[in-house]
Structure of MbtH family protein:
Amino acid sequence: MSEPDSSEDYIVLINDEEQYSLWSQSIPVPPGWRVTHGPAARQACLDYVDEVWKDLTPRSVRLRLQQAADTGRAAE
């Protein structure tokens, strides 16, 4: 496997589950994803993802957990 081209610009994508993906700017953004950062150098995009993606749990799972916790508090 070859090393990524450091001269190529990248973008960071996010989907509705608030999951991130590093993507080459030269490839069309796939359905269900939108640009959240870039275009920028690969390392700058990786740094951005590292800074913002603290909880890897998908959004739908976080919401279900929160609803369950809220329901449990209401029953007390």
Notes: The chain has one domain: 10-71. Residues 59-74 form the longest helix (16 residues). The first strand starts at residue 10 and ends at 15.
